[in-house]
From TrEMBL:
Coiled coil: none annotated. It comes from the Bacteria. GO terms for molecular function: lactoylglutathione lyase activity; metal ion binding. CDD domains: VOC. The keyword ATP-binding does not apply. Residues 4-128 form the VOC domain. This is VOC domain-containing protein. InterPro entries: Fosfomycin_Res_Enzymes, Glyas_Bleomycin-R_OHBP_Dase, Glyas_Fos-R_dOase_dom, Glyoxalase_1_CS, VOC_core. Keywords: Metal-binding. Pfam families: Glyoxalase (PF00903).
Length: 147
């Protein structure tokens, strides 16, 4: 069997807030959207490829202590793209873990930024190389563990 991950779908508490957050952060286009009460959603992507579906079907904040999604990770081509994303994250006022770019672990060249979306869903934007000199926040554990 061969396969690859398709789009990711997230439950959000406020479609407008989440749609605007992800559009500003990633430059996503809106492929489709419904504003009909009880059926609000937005389909977001790039280059005619669906990346993220947002469904306004929840209340409250993301519960990290319950089974389910740990975090959502997005790979970008290089560490400069991570730096640009970090600037947007700070501009958006999103909670940022580790106060900026960190390496994935001791001796790793990959690294990125770890933060939360408007509903508290933990996110990562990383580059496969370029973080060799970045700090490692938790020795002996992968940074993407959000320890």
């Amino acid at each position: 069997m061969t396969f690859r991950t398709g789009h990711v779908a997230l439950n959000v508490s406020d479609l407008d807030t989440s749609r605007d957050f992800y559009r500003k952060l990633f430059g996503f286009e809106v492929f489709a959207e419904s504003t009909k009460e009880g059926r609000r959603f937005a389909l977001l992507g790039l280059d005619r490829t669906l990346v993220l579906a947002l469904w306004q079907q929840s209340e409250g904040r993301f519960a990290t202590a319950l089974p389910g999604l740990h975090h959502l990770s997005f790979e970008v081509p290089d560490i400069e793209a991570v730096r640009r994303a970090e600037a947007v994250i700070r501009e958006l006022g999103a909670p940022l873990y580790h106060d900026g770019i960190v390496a994935h672990g001791e001796g790793a060249s990959s690294g990125g930024v770890f933060f939360e979306d408007p509903d508290g869903i933990r996110l990562e934007i990383y580059a496969p190389a370029g973080a060799e000199t970045a700090p490692v926040p938790t020795p002996g554990a992968p940074t993407c563990g959000f320890f």
